Amino acid sequence: MTQIYDYHLIKNFDWIFDKKIVLYGDEDGIHHVCDAIKQLGLPAAHVVKYDKTDISVGSISVQQIKQIYSDINAEEYLLIVSSYDNFDLIIAHLQEIGIGKQENGYICTIYGFFMSLAINRTNKRIPIEYREILKSFYAINLIRRRHKMTQGFLPSFSGDIVSDNNAIFIYQPGKVGSSTIRASLNAVNKTCVHVHWLTPLPGYDRIWNKHGAAFYNWFKNQPRKIITLVRDPFARDFSGLFQNTDVRYFWYPFIIGNAVSNMYFPGEDDIQDLINDRDLIALFGKPVLASNDYCDYCVKVMTQMGRMNYQFDWFDSQLKKYFDIDVYTYHFDKKIGYTIIQEGNLEILVLRLENMKKLEKIIGEFVGIDNFKLFNANEAGNKIYKYLYNYVRENITLPKEYFDCYMNNEKALHFYTKEELQGFLEKFKHE
Question: What CATH number does the domain located at 6-120 have?
Fold first, then answer.
């Protein structure tokens, strides 16, 4: 089995400088990595194209994998799978021809390469000019991260949605399976609005007053149906570490997802000012000192998530605040995994992600669709970060300080039994 060393490259950043670099991918990915290693002052020993399209990489000769097979098996190399879309196919091909099984060879994805740059961006082996560039990109992406937050509170809706009194409002905390509900409704042309919160962020009041408030007032004063969800809190928090890290922003694809959003280095006061934004802290917690031990870093971030209790407090800060409905005063049937609340002009289906597949009929009846089927969406197993995700998932050890946040949490126990929470916890290594 070919091993992917994304995690190890974060921890062993010197590999980028000490090993011969081989790029194997397609046009976009190869150009992006070539540009980065040029900024690092490094050469590419070999560039290999995956498909048959012609690409030009400056003066570098582009080869076929069979031309360099013996070379890269004889020397220490770092092979970067330089593709955003064909990474699985390339890795399967490498496994088929036996590359990556040698002790002197290491394979990482383009995602692992740029994550290593992001997390080690102050390393002294990086030329100082490029360190400043990396810092600038990190700051830019923090600003973009804030902008992306607005998409979570500001529903994008058209005249068709406003005129459709049967539109479904998918309204829930993030990372609980709502993308699957949305994709499944879209597949049968059912109008829906998908949003995580309605609270306007400071600085966006004008946009809220023009668009968001109008939507809220339109929605609240009509008979409406809302679908909201909860999820195993340990799996939700872990999944949230990697959310938004697979998105491409122009040429520079190291993306600060939920975990890396509050990473800082000593002396980066301007960066820390951005991270200390109160709205980012409300979502992701206080800044955490950067570490290239990514498992340890993720433990610290998850511990903050546990203290914040975002998922279970969401029902108070959002649903109760804006619709005056307190789910915690309604019985939730843990055996069947859902309940339907009817209050005023609102009808709310509250369900658990773990039971969702068995509830297709219930969901279909609720939204008025016969033979309703769910289509999985936004799954980590299909994304380029899955190799880092899987390694951390298998090697992380959850501390008692973290899991106690949920094991004795009255709000979590409203949806899950203590035995169910213990079962979720046992899927992780823990103290």
Answer: 3.40.50.720
